[in-house]
Amino acid sequence: MDNEILVKEFRDTISELKQEKGPISLFMLKAFEYDVTDWNLIVSAPTYDNLVLKTALIDLVTVLNNHLSQSIRRKIIRSTILKTTDPFVKEINQVFKVTNTVKYVYSSVISGIYLEKAIIFESHPIKKKTKEAKQ
């Protein structure tokens, strides 16, 4: 599959996800094993931090089903939601700061996880709102 189509559809989906759910700390595709045609989608967003994992996954899959073509959805073998406090999310966000662009990663080890190939769409820490800021 052409990466241009994949990237375009995911950029559009991320825009919709941000509008519906708020900021995204991490949104990336990681090649599934050594097969670079199948992907593990990894998402981290404050809106999912306080949800039960099953509820968060159902919500994410619903958004994906509404905004991605069937041919792109077939390439997502696994969807993973990580808390914004997860060590992997923190390290990715420290190493790669990606907003409104796409970063291709090859042969990297992040927080003990080997990334043979990955496409990062969003990667940045989300500023915590303090009690004073809420008032």
Q: What can you tell me about this protein's structure?
A:
By secondary structure, this protein is α+β, with helices and mostly antiparallel strands. It is built from six helices and five strands. A five-stranded mixed beta sheet has the order 3-2-1-5-4. A hairpin with a 2-residue loop joins β4 (103-110) and β5. The radius of gyration is 15 Å and the shape is globular.
What distinguishing features does this structure have?
disordered C terminus; alpha+beta; five-stranded mixed sheet; globular; single chain; 135 residues
Short description:
This protein is of the alpha+beta class and 135 residues long. The protein has helices spanning 3-21, 46-49, 53-67, 70-73, 87-95, 131-134, and strands spanning 26-32, 35-44, 76-81, 103-110, 113-123.
| Helical/strand content category | alpha+beta
What is the rounded distance between the termini? 49 Å
Order of strands, widest sheet? 3-2-1-5-4
Estimate the mean pLDDT confidence: 84
Tally of strands: 5
What low-confidence regions span 5 or more consecutive residues with pLDDT below 50?
130-135
Enumerate how many helices there are, as a single number: 6
Order of helices and strands: HEEHHHEHEEH
Broad shape: globular
Tell me the radius of gyration.
15 Å
- The percentage helix is 40-55%
Characterize the biggest β-sheet: 5 strands, mixed
Fraction in beta strands = 25-35%
